[in-house]
Amino acid sequence: MKKVGILFGMEDTYPWAFIERVNQIGDGKVKAEAVQIDKVQQGIDYGYHVIIDRISQEVPFYRSYLKNAALMGTAVINNPFWWSADEKFFNNCLSVQLGVPVPKTVLLPSKERPDDTTEKSFRNLRAPLDWDYMFDYIGFPAYMKPHSGGGWKSVYKVESPEDLFAKHGETEQLVMMLQEEIVFDDYYRVYCLGQKYVHIMPYEPRNEFHLRYATESKIKGDEHKKLMKTIHDLTIKLNKALGYDFNTVEFAVRNGIPYAIDFCNPAPDADINSVGQQNFDWIVEHSAKLAVEKAKAHKAKKNNCTWGTFLQEAISGPKGTRPAGLKTASEAKKTVLKKPVAKKKVAPTKKSPTKN
Ligand SMILES: Nc1ncnc2c1ncn2[C@@H]1O[C@H](COP(=O)(O)OP(=O)(O)O)[C@@H](O)[C@H]1O
Ligand SMILES: [Mg+2]
């Protein structure tokens, strides 16, 4: 008998449906339950062949428990080591390397210094930063959002350098990204499981929360078919590179090109009340199927987590030459058209490592 566990927080529809479905299709060979923890001792195997992790981003105790479980051979979905290492800016960098369209993006140092650092901790940062270059490259309006985060928290639309500096002033110790706005004709949210099961959901982020999935593709026929194939292939490509087994990728479509906007969602919303019955049924069915497959494929005393091609190739050595998407800073400078931008700067605050 193989054992599947699910680790979860406040969500209350998906976990129970997942457990029920695994127990139905597990056919007496695979059984599922809510993970039970009453102690966590180093180097001890608590007996799960597969764990679906829906919450360790919020509970560091669970993340550490899962790393031990992975060491003991549990197929943890998603790999807790990779999840700990990953963030959205790196995701974008990797996409550039992979040739996946992403909005132009730069990383901004936090407005306030991290705890226990002083001005002296930031001698590697030039003051002022090269804001003119960044504004020329990104343009306005733009989006500013945390380099690691989710749930639309601290996501800002900024209209001008002044607006950017004002809003950046509210972001405390968050490391932010400044990103080109993709003015989209169409938007999709895509579930991807096991790097092979893909479910494309039309999504309207401008609707009220409960109506975001109540929308349709804006295009039809062959054009629609072609776009769905492109989105499917880009989704697989990103998840294979990152090594996620349970993720969503969001795409904003501008002039027929799907730009990957948000693709670091390793515990994506799967609540029936937001995704709707049809999408809920898909995610329950396919995640149960994946868990049963992983449980049956589990090899004792081996690492059964998924490792993305980025890491695999980093270890096994590069394949071929530098990928086409990557440039040096001086090559990049040549490609940014110099446009005049508003020069007015907000005075630096005492606490600011960015010094504006
Ligand atoms: N570059 C962008 N262009 C257009 N819209 C964006 C952009 N970045 C974010 N958005 C909008 O803001 C929403 C939240 O941003 P997102 O990157 O998905 O953050 P989160 O991880 O918090 O969901 C998106 O669903 C989208 O509607
Ligand atoms: Mg999002």
UniProtKB/TrEMBL annotation:
InterPro entries, alphabetized: ATP-grasp (IPR011761), ATP_grasp_subdomain_1 (IPR013815)
Domain ATP-grasp: 92-293
Keyword Secreted included in the entry's annotation: no
Lineage top rank: taxon: Bacteria
Keyword set includes ATP-binding: yes
Region feature Disordered, mapped onto this chain: 316-356
Swiss-Prot/TrEMBL keywords: ATP-binding, Ligase, Nucleotide-binding
Example GO molecular function: ATP binding
Basic residues composition-biased segments: 335-356
One GO BP: SOS response
A GO cellular component annotation in the UniProt record: cytoplasm
UniProt protein name: Glutathione synthase/RimK-type ligase-like ATP-grasp enzyme
